[in-house]
Amino acid sequence: MTSASFEEKSTWVQLVGMVLGLGAYFVVAGRMLASGVRAMPAFAAVFMVAVAAMVVFLIIAYALVSLMGKQEPPDERDRLIVWRSEYNSGWVVAAGVLGAVTCMVLNVENVWTANLLLLSLALSEVLGCVLRIAHYRRGV
C-alpha cells in the first residue's frame, strides 16, 4: 500500500478539524436549545469560538502535514476526486436549504432555521471529505 499523498493528508486534517470544531458547536448549541436559549447572538458567539478553535487546529495540523512530507501541486486525479466528492455531497446542502425554506414558510424560530442551514453545510463538507478519502483509498 502506498503512503497517503499530501492532498489526502490535507483532507484528513480538514475532516478531523471540522468534526471537532463544528461537532463541538453542535453539541453546545443542542444543549442551549434544550435549555431554552433562543437568542441568536448567543449562538453566534459559540459559533465564532468553535470556528476560531477549528482554524487554530487546522493551521497547526497543516503545518505538521507540510513538515512531514513533500507538498505537490494537485494533479488531474486530485481535481477529479474533489469534483466527484463535491458533486456527490452537494445534495446535503440542497436538502438543508429546502428544509430552511420550509421552516421559514412555517414560521419556525430563526435559531432553528439558522442551525439547520449550518448543519446541512457542515454535513455536506464532512461527507465531501469522507468521499474524497474513499476515492483516494479505492481509486477513482
Task: Describe, in plain words, how this protein is organized in 3D.
The chain is mostly helical and about 140 residues long. It has one domain. Helix content is about 85%, strand content about 0%. It is built from 4 helices and no strands. It has helices spanning about 5-35, 40-70, 75-105, 110-140. Helix 1 runs antiparallel to helix 2, helix 1 runs antiparallel to helix 4 and helix 3 packs antiparallel against helix 4 (about 110-140). The longest helix is centred in the middle third of the chain and has 30 residues, at about 75-105. The protein is flat and about 50 Å long. The chain starts with 5 loop residues before the first helix and ends with a helix.
